[in-house]
Amino acid sequence: MPQTIAVLDFGSQFTQVIARRIRECQVYSKIYHYTTPAAQLKADGVTGIIFSGGPQSVYSKQAPHPDRGVFELGVPILGICYGLQLMGHFLGGKVAKGERREYGNGTLEIFGNSELFKGLPKKLKVWNSHGDKLIELPKGFHSVARTENSEYAGIEDSDRRFYAIQFHPEVFHTDRGIEIIRNYLTRICGCKGDWSMSNFIDRKIAEIRETVGKSRVILGLSGGVDSSVAAALIHKAIGKQLTCVFVDNGLLRKDEREHVVDLYKRNFKIDLRVVDASALFLRRLKGVEEPEQKRKIIGRTFVEVFEKSLKSIGKAEFLGQGTLYPDVIESVSIGNNPASLIKSHHNVGGLPARMKLKLLEPLRELFKDEVRAVGTALGLPREVVWRQPFPGPGLGVRVLGDITAEKLAILREADAILHAEMMESGWYWKVWQSFCVFLPVKSVGVIGDERNYAYVIAVRVVESIDAMTADWTRLPYDLLQTISNRITNEVRGVSRVVLDISSKPPATIEWE
Ligand code: XMP
After folding, report:
1. Domain with CATH 3.40.50.620 in the chain
2. CA of 14 to the centre of ligand 1 (A)
3. Distance in Å, CA 391 to ligand 1 centroid
């Protein structure tokens, strides 16, 4: 394993951000629950520890406290925000209940010669969010930075290698915060910065070979980023021992199946089995209008089809999956922590335990941006690595109400036009998602002298960081006009195109 920095999670909404910033410094980070015993951290051989912030007061009844033993491990600790107060509280200082919250930007004034602030100017704009504050230093500590409101905005005991800061270096509102984190990692923890995607690929390939031996691995390929990168990585490790299964559920976009076959079968020479189950899916969805009902049917049918396809492939011991780090982090859920709001219904593919396959999840340690870097290094094209998210139930939740082959065909054509125009203009890469929705209402239009009573297509284009919130994209009018003209002129059965200008919340990204 590479050198590891443990991030002890005390419920901060920024815990994952801290972990990602560490990785940006080419150091491996792992998030641990705040209750993790010191012995465990020792057994894992962590090189340093960071205490995350957290919404609680150290004095509150439910205040999350770490195992005292972490202070005895002899490894450096950096406390951030609540982490600073914890350090003060545990090591004999005094924390006062704040009368008012210090929230937002402040100016940090740095004095002395702390390793933490090496190479930085004496004044920095920093971002604060805390109620309590440290009013008496623990023994052995001295102050190295202050803000307008805190004498002890940066403190340290360099003999024991304990450091703490009141502000958040991990957020973008703090100037040069990443350099503070990097100083901690390299100057204080002595990290070599050996976490890179090419090292990762080499290490994983060896690991996959060792784990799998001569067995076979099955992987359900969706064409999305995660399963594609997992497939490419496993294939590089074990070649023909990997078999991928692609289920055509009849709810795919135009030419999607052909693209998948082209890339993986022809280009990567992966053993890819395509199962055309579109008739079965459409039969089961017939007349079903309710979105959650549709999702259930699609999910269940997928598992059934996938399981059945395995019978014809023969005995396999492993199921490959593109699980990512954010899916496995056991975030501390305290108060209103957005990181704990994991959307379970989005994680389709929970294949039943009765399949008795061992899981092979080579991307479990990675964040999404790292997965993209791995995909690129493995030679996957930009269209796959930077592909927009596409929901598991596919066009099934984009044809509103009941689904028919005719409605799907109309949606597919309209969506292909939108896609082509987004690509042509370069906007595809700038937005989170862009897609069409089929509205089952008819409106009147004219073609030549004829009355055209036909369906309506909604165009949905959004920007987002993580799909939790989203805003509609202000596409140029000219581009919107081209999209609208082309759809109404070229797609039979559509008389009108409308633009969705709703943000999330209160709307969601998908219409169903
Ligand atoms: P909403 O519509 O909840 O979507 O704002 C947030 C993100 O999740 C995707 N999405 C899904 N993905 N199965 C999936 O795999 C689903 O049932 C599903 N519903 C929504 C959506 O495309 C967006 O990126």
Report:
1. 197-385
2. 23
3. 5
Q: What is the value of pTM for the model shown?
A: 0.90
pLDDT, tens digit (0-9, with 9 covering 90-100), for 50-84: 999 998 889 888 899 999 999 999 999 999 999 99
Q: Are 124 and 116 in contact (CB under 8 A)?
A: no
The finding on whether 297 has its CB within 6 A of some atom of ligand 1 is no
Per residue in 301-338, pLDDT tens?
Answer: 999 999 999 888 888 999 999 999 988 886 665 444 44
**81 catalytic per annotation:** yes
Q: Determine contact, residues 144/156, Cβ cutoff 8 Å.
A: yes
At residue 163, what are phi and psi to the nearest 5 degrees? -135, 150
**30 C-alpha to ligand 1 centroid (Å):** 27
Q: Whose CA is nearest to atom 11 of ligand 1?
A: 391
Which CATH code of 3.30.300.10, 3.90.380.10, 3.90.1170.20, 3.40.50.1100 fits the domain covering 404-499? Answer: 3.30.300.10
Q: Strands, E, within 147-248: which ranges? A: 154-157, 162-165, 217-220, 242-248
Provide CATH code, domain 197-385: 3.40.50.620
Assigned fold of 4-188: Rossmann fold (3.40.50)
Atom of ligand 1 nearest to the CA of 295: 17
